[in-house]
Structures are given as structure tokens and as C-alpha cells.
Amino acid sequence: MLVELVRAKTSDGLRLDGSLALPVGDSEWIDAVILLHGVGGSFFGGAMFEPLSNRLLELGIAVLRVRSRERTIDRL
Fold it and tell me: How many CA atoms lie within 13 A of 2 on its CB side?
């Protein structure tokens, strides 16, 4: 799966990272899904996110996987 690394900055200056994968085709019923990991997880790995992302892309749905604010603060 090819992804584009994305970055956003919060109003208080904290940088949040993620990845965006775009499907080859289009879905008729939904444009995108945002996958947000739980505590202790990450947006770039995990046994659940990878197969789920692949299936959503097959259905023509874009997938945005993001790092949560809590995880980012833990790393400071």
C-alpha cells in the first residue's frame, strides 16, 4: 500500500503525524475513514489496521491513519 505522510499542527503548536492512502477507484457510499489507534498503539503498525486499511482501499475508500495527541505527548 502506498501512503502519503501527512502532518497537522494543533492550535497549541503540537505536531500530529499520520498517513493517507488513496484508493484506485471511488466508493459510492463513503469518501474516507479515519483510523485512530488506542493508548499504546501507533498509526503505522498493528495487526488490525493493516488488513482493515487494505480492505477499505479495495472498496474505494480513502484511509487516514493518525497519531493521537496522547501518544505524541508521551513521546515528548
Answer: 3
Q: Which residues, in sequence order, are bridge partners of residue 16?
A: 8
Distance (Å, rounded) from C-alpha 45 to C-alpha 52? 12
The three cell numbers of residue 14 are 503540537
Three-state SS string over the chain comes to CCCEEEEEECCCCCEEEEEEECCCCCCCCCCEEEEECCCCCCCCCCCCHHHHHHHHHHCCCEEEEECCHHHHHHHC
Other CB atoms within 10 A of residue 51 CB: 10
Q: What is the pLDDT of residues 17-70, one digit of tens each?
A: 888 999 988 877 888 998 887 666 665 666 778 888 889 999 999 999 887 766
For the entire predicted model, the pTM comes to 0.74
